[in-house]
Every structure is written in C-alpha cells, then in structure tokens.
Specification:
With about 375 residues, the protein is α/β, with parallel strands linked by helices. It is built from 11 helices and 17 strands. Helix 1 (about 15-30) packs across helix 10 (about 325-340), helix 4 packs parallel to helix 5 and helix 6 (about 135-145) crosses helix 8. The two termini are about 30 Å apart. Keywords: Oxidoreductase.
Length: about 375
C-alpha cells in the first residue's frame, strides 16, 4: 500500500468533509493510507485550529506553499469556485495529482484547459462530483447500460433546496458571478448534470430560462444591501447526442425542499425514479412485469439498496439499512486513493469539463433566448 500525502487548500466546511472522508476510507477499506501533510487557508487562526483538529502536520496561509511542497503528492482544492482554476493549474504544473471540489472552474473553456493539462502531465485528476458514487445512481447506470429499460426516451430532473428562501439571509460569494459563476445552476444542478453525464452521455444542445426571486440581500455587518447577480431558479430543456430529450431544473428557494435531488428516466421497456431525500430507495417499473400483473397489481416497485449494489456493502451488511450522504464522500476518497495506485475512476477533469460546458451553454442561452450547442461533445 502506498501513502497518499495530502495537501489541502481550504479549511472550511468542504475541506473538512474531504478530510473526514479520507480518514474514514483509511479505516473502512484497509488499503488506503492517507497522510495529512499540510493545510492552507487565508485565515491563520482558522487554519491553525483546523490543522490541530483534523490531524494535519503543518499549516500555512499561502496556498502556493501547498502546490510546491515536495512532501505533497495530492493537492486537494476545496475553496470558492473562482479560485479553482488558478490553484488547480498551478498544482498540475508542479506535477501534483489533484482532487478539486466541483465545479472544476467557472467555464467549460477553462475546465477544458485543465483537463488537457492534466492529460499532458499524466496525473490523477479527480473532480468532486460525489453523487457519482451513490450506489443508487450506479444501479440506475447498470439498468441503462444493460438495456433493461429499453431505449431511453426522456429524462426529467430537478435539484431543489430552500436554503436561501429567507430574504434576510446575507449576500455571500455564491450570489456574485465573479466568484460563483452562476447560482442554482452551478451550485446544485451541476450535480444532476454529472449523474446525467455518467448515465446518458453527452448533451448536445440546451435552451434555458431563469429567475432571481430575491434580487437584493443584506450585506453582513452593514445596513446596506447588495445585488444578487445569479439565478435562484434555473430551468432548461436538453437534447442529447444519442437522441434522448429532457428537462432539468434547480432552485435554491424551493419552499419546503431540503435536498430534493430527483430524476426520472423513461425507457421503452421500463422507467426508474430516484429521490435523494429517500436515499436508499429506487423506484422501478418494468413493462414486462406489468404485463404479467395487469390491473390492480401493476405499477412501480421499490428496490431497497443492499450489498448487491456497488459500494453499499462497505457500510452495511444487509439491505434496508440506511447509508448516509457522507458515505458517498468516503467512497469517493477511496476511489481517488486507489486511482493513485493505478485504479480506474470516472470523475476526471474531462468529464467535469463536459458538465461545465453544458452549464456555460445554458448561461449563453439565457442571454440569446435560443438553443445553444454544448461544445463539450467534441472534447476528449
């Protein structure tokens, strides 16, 4: 077993989540050896406390010290969106393996640059789309790939939360395009797009519409307000390269919704429905079964996640015992560390560039009010 010597940039919530996942992966799988070398953040008091509580050997307030540190083999970028491109690029140029929280950058074009550089350097390049590791999504992927749902016709998907419904919540970096790139589209809907990319492949073109429900928010520590520059709600239609059509939506002001990551994929032989708020349940309908049980007994049935589903067995010994959202991060950390030893992984920068390319096309369509092509289809 080879050690993974981690240098983390960002001591906030996501950086902590990554570190905990590495810790747990080391304990659960037994063949991962994470070593926490150095952690960076601009706030010295915060990063010092984080280093002590999370088990990092050293800390710094200069992120460049992480990407050039000879002891670090994996640079973990867990900072606000607008910092990703510069930090990841510097890490790649220094020959480091890189783990970057999503989105990879603020545009498909920038993400393509990073993907090409990572390929040139021959290093592990992993983007933090943790929903790809969800056993439920892996199961749906299998149903599509084996043809059990028949020819796929349509996807209907939405990711809704009400975390920003209160207009009194202050303005943050997530509301400003320069730092966030977009609103609900990049923050929430990108997770749906990553799962869509894994299961259904490339989206060819899109057309979107958006809404800013809370146009101004208070500035913390001031009696002034600031403008909300990006989407509270996003909706867009999609056409896939393989002929599938669909619609995606996302809202960060969806009254009553907490983590409503929902999609329905309809095929000629069956349909599958998934809702992350009911994480360990997948609703499936097979036309062949329905034909045998016409009338009152036909309809969807519930499949409970169990050890036969990819990834589940590492957490629970029997079906129907719930696994949690953080377990996806543990599976992600394990796959990442195994990739550094030559293992395969799906969430590379090329995939992330395709997701960011779709988001860029949606943003473009909001201005043009017409269908826009996703340049991702010619990448890689």
């Amino acid at each position: 077993m080879k050690e993974t010597k981690i240098g983390l940039i960002g001591a906030g919530w996501m950086g902590r989540a990554h570190t905990v996942a590495f810790h747990h992966a080391g304990m659960i799988f037994g063949d991962d050896l994470p070593v926490f070398e150095i952690i960076a953040d601009v706030y010295e008091e915060q990063v010092k406390e984080a280093a002590e509580s999370l088990g990092y050997k050293r800390y710094t307030t200069d992120w460049r010290a992480v990407v050039t540190d000879p002891a670090v083999t994996l640079v973990d970028v867990a900072t606000p969106n607008n910092m990703h491109f510069e930090m990841v690029k510097a890490a790649l140029e220094n020959g480091k393996h890189v783990f970057c929280e999503k989105p990879l950058s603020l545009s498909g074009e920038e993400s393509q640059i990073l993907a090409e550089l990572a390929k040139e350097k021959g290093v592990v390049n992993y983007c933090g789309f943790s929903n790809l590791m969800n056993p439920a999504n892996q199961y749906v992927k299998e149903l599509v790939e084996t043809g059990e749902l028949g020819e796929i016709m349509r996807i209907h998907a939405t990711y809704d939360q009400d975390m920003l419904l209160d207009p009194k919540l202050p303005l943050t970096w997530r509301h400003v395009n320069e730092t966030a790139g977009s609103g609900a589209l990049g923050d929430l809907c990108s997770h749906l797009l990553s799962v869509s990319q894994m299961i259904l492949g490339d989206i060819k073109e899109v057309i979107g519409i958006d809404s800013v429900v809370v146009p101004e928010r208070p500035i913390a520590g001031s009696d002034k307000t600031g403008k909300v520059e990006n989407d509270d709600i996003i909706t867009f239609l999609v056409k896939y390269k393989n002929g599938v059509i669909g619609d995606f939506s996302s809202s960060r002001v969806a009254t009553g919704r907490k983590n409503y990551f929902y999609y329905e994929i309809q095929g000629t032989k069956g349909t599958v429905v998934y809702d992350l708020e009911r994480m360990c349940e997948v609703q499936v309908y097979f036309k062949q079964d329905a034909d045998k049980r016409k009338g009152r007994d036909s309809g969807f049935r519930t499949v409970l996640l169990n050890p036969e589903h990819k990834g589940y067995k590492y957490f629970q010994p029997a079906g129907g015992i719930a696994i949690g959202f953080d377990d996806m991060k543990v599976l992600q950390a394990h796959e990442l560390m195994q990739a550094m030893a030559g293992g395969e992984y799906a969430a590379n920068f090329a995939m992330a560039a395709k997701v960011d390319g779709v988001a860029s096309a949606v943003l473009k369509s909001l201005k043009s009010r017409t269908w826009e092509e996703c340049c991702n289809c010619s990448w890689f």
